[in-house]
Amino acid sequence: MSSRSKILQALRARDVEAVELPNLDLAWVRYENPHQQFVSAVEAVGGSVVSVSRQGSLPETLAGLDVFAKASKICSLVDGVERANVDLDDVPDPHDLEDVDLAIVSAEFGVAENGALWVTDDAVRHRVLPFIAQHVVVVVGSDQILHNMHEAYQRLHFNQSGFGVFISGPSKTADIEQSLVIGAHGPRSLTALLTDSSS
Amino acid sequence: MTHGLNQHPLEAARFVGNHERARWHDGALWFVRTKRDRAAASVPEWEQLREIASQIKGHLIARLPEYLEQFEERAVGLGAHVHWAADAAEHNQIVLKLLQQHNVKRVVKSKSMLTEECHLNPFLEQHAIEVVDTDLGERIVQMRGESPSHIVLPAIHIKKEEVGALFHEQLGTQVGATDPAYLTESARKHLRQKFLKADAGITGVNFAIAETGGLVVCTNEGNADLGVSLPKLHIACMGIEKLVPRAADLGVFLRLLARSATGQPITTYSSHFHGPRPAGELHIVIVDNGRSWLRTSEEFRRSLNCIRCGACMNTCPVYRRSGGHSYHYTVPGPIGSILAPATDARQHASLPFACSLCGSCSDVCPVKIDLHQQLLTWRHEIASRHLLPLSKRLAMRVGRFVLSRPRLYQWAGAAARLALRLLPRSILYHRWNVWGRQRDLPEAPRRSFRQLYRRRRHEQ
Question: Is B375 within the bounds of a domain?
Answer without folding.
Answer: yes
